[in-house]
Amino acid sequence: MEYRKNKYGEPISLLGYGCMRFTRRGNSIDIDKAERELLRAFELGVNYYDTAYLYPGSEAALGEIVSRNGIRDKINIATKLPQYLVNNPGAIDKYFDEELKRLKTDHVDYYLMHMLTDLAQWEKLKRLGIEDWIERKKASGAIRNIGFSFHGNTEMFLSILKDYPWDFCQIQYNYLDETSQAGRLGLETAYEMGIPVIIMEPLRGGALATKLPQDAVDRIARIGLKPPAIGLKWLYDQPGVTCVLSGMNSIEMVEENCLAASSSPAGSMTPEERETIEDVKRILTSRLKVGCTGCRYCMPCPQGVDIPGIFSCYNTMYLEKKSRGRYNYLSTIGLRKKPGFGSNCIGCKKCEKHCPQSLPVSSLVKEADKALRPLPYKIAAVVGRKFMVR
């Protein structure tokens, strides 16, 4: 297993264990199966285990497995404050204390503000005293490293990143999301600031592992690799990547991923592997609904429309499935203090003057908005905003 360093020089395994996707039997986690898989990862050197308050049963399962095998002091546990549920200072302690009980521990090694999409969410937490709270928890040893997980656009990520002395951050990043969400710019900015980056959705929830078109699979096979391996190697190749999370739920998957993470130092991709990634991206982008490259020359929009974000979600509907694109639209664009929906467009066409692809942006964002927000999703957006945006 290769290890990279956190902000304080401590080792983190290049491969991390994402505990959101433990196998379930009915409504509960199959803890015996999860235990076998997690312990195999531990044997192979994985020392970073990621969970969250809202992953059903995950914290408790992880706590039970770690406790019954006596490995707490040999691993790092990462979990997350459900900041979208916090509306008073006492709620912060309430959720944190509950998480410690579930995890059967007295400290969290890596604690994140969960799913920030907007600077306004972080500012709300600051008004509730989160900075003093973090300082107290770190001084007591209850929290070792503080960070945030992010689902939003690049500009918002950079604003949050620079607003506090974070110990680490977590972003969605893969070879298809190179220019969306935090993107390569966010990753490299964090690296320049000395802030370790944890990667989630490295294979887009498995879509880049098991749902590639056959011509893309055949292209990867020509160099003797499988789709998951080349997707992970692309990430491992970048020095700004500290740890890549994988939701492993089979021994075979654990062993394959650990093998890839034991021989992939930064800068180790061959020219042939890089060319293969570019060919696969061309195959996939040929199926896109909108030929947006994510360059962001169209931004900022005077009406707050998140143009690249909308097109990314719209394309996801056709690359993966409609529900995935619509979920991304609501979670990354619709839950901000000022949502960047395409319906906000007034047709000024300022964006079209700057688009290198000469896209009819103003009509496309409205077309995309209609596809991404049919009536049930419009209702869900209203309910979600009332629940999570205050």
In words, what does this structure look like?
There is one protein chain. This protein has helices at residues 31-43, 58-69, 89-103, 119-127, 130-140, 154-161, 183-192, 207-210, 214-221, 227-236, 251-260, 271-285, 307-319, 322-334, 350-354, 361-372, 375-388; strands at 3-5, 11-13, 15-18, 24-25, 28-29, 48-50, 76-81, 108-116, 143-150, 168-172, 197-200, 241-246. It has 390 residues and is an alpha/beta fold. It has 2 domains: 3-277, NADP-dependent oxidoreductase domain (TIM Barrel, Alpha-Beta Barrel); 307-388, no CATH class. Strand 10, helix 7 and strand 11 form a beta-alpha-beta unit. The longest helix is centred in the N-terminal third of the chain and has 15 residues, at 89-103.
Properties at a glance:
390 residues; alpha/beta; TIM Barrel; eight-stranded parallel β-barrel; two-stranded antiparallel sheet; 12 strands; 47% helix; 14% strand; globular
Top-tier CATH class of the largest domain: Alpha Beta
- The name CATH uses for the topology of the largest domain is TIM Barrel
Taken from the alpha-carbon principal axes, the silhouette is: globular
Let me know the CATH homologous superfamily of the largest domain: NADP-dependent oxidoreductase domain
Content of β-strand? 5-15%
Count of DSSP E strands? 12
